[in-house]
Design brief:
Length: about 250
């Protein structure tokens, strides 16, 4: 396939970015999207130009690093797929593909398509953990957890923290990400000790980072590559209200 790529180029955070058009030729339909970008970068290097910066790691759809906004959609046109698992057979010969970084104030652009998602790390540091000493790894069935609860906690735990929900949301809200982390621990026995302080601290850090408010449009869940449910946001709201009702912190 021969394709026209419109790629966001921005040398650093302080510089003004712009869309630059490139042509790539002889792209195999069996290539992944990132392999296609590798071909583009090889062409740019051979031409003595600066290659396009983009984030990636596992290339197996499990690390959440490959955060690209493709033709106006997080991770591209295929539902339930990360950018690294998106294949070029989803496009046609002669297509024009627009590639941008995540658009959110809380995710500043490092360079080109690479953004700083450390805001998510700081939200996790604020409370997305279990600090109680659990000792060595217990036997699988030592702590009884009903299967329905275990399944719901596991589904929440599948969030890979890629930020697609933020990029898809018109308000750049991080509620789906935060709710997945809060729900996962609130559902399990190990997460009960810090249940109330966890949700307060994580929501406070989310607001501090500059993420927008949730208006229940649902675009976050629609674009999530691992299918995190909007039900988690309902759980987060319930947990937050319960924590505030029992807390002395009225801020």
């Amino acid at each position: 396939m021969n394709l026209t790529l419109k790629v966001w180029r921005q040398p650093n955070r302080q510089a003004q970015g712009k869309i630059v058009e490139y042509q790539v030729k002889d792209i195999s339909p069996d290539m992944s999207f990132l392999e296609m970008l590798d071909v583009l970068n090889e062409d740019l290097l051979h031409a003595g130009q600066d290659p396009v910066a983009f984030d990636h790691d596992c290339r197996e759809g499990i690390c959440g690093s490959c955060d690209l906004f493709i033709n106006g959609r997080s991770h591209g046109p295929e539902k339930g797929t990360t950018t690294c698992q998106l294949h070029m057979r989803k496009f046609s010969d002669g297509d024009t593909i627009t590639i941008e970084p995540w658009r959110a104030n809380a995710f500043p652009v490092n360079k080109d398509l690479s953004v700083d998602r450390s805001a998510f790390d700081r939200i996790i540091q604020a409370g997305g953990y279990v600090s109680v000493n659990t000792g060595g790894a217990p036997d699988g069935n030592e702590i009884p957890v009903p299967k329905e609860i275990a399944d719901r906690a596991f589904e929440a735990a599948t969030c890979i923290g890629c930020g697609a929900c933020v990029a898809a949301c018109k308000n750049a809200s991080a509620m789906l990400f935060v709710s997945a982390k809060v729900s996962q621990l609130a559902l399990l026995p190990q997460g009960q000790v810090e249940r109330k302080t966890r949700v307060e601290n994580m929501v406070a850090q989310m607001d501090k980072e500059g993420f927008g408010a949730c208006t229940n449009i649902g675009s976050c869940a629609a674009e999530c590559p691992v299918g995190i449910s909007l039900e988690n946001i309902a759980i987060l709201n319930r947990e937050f209200l319960a924590a505030k009702a029992a807390s002395n912190n009225l801020a």
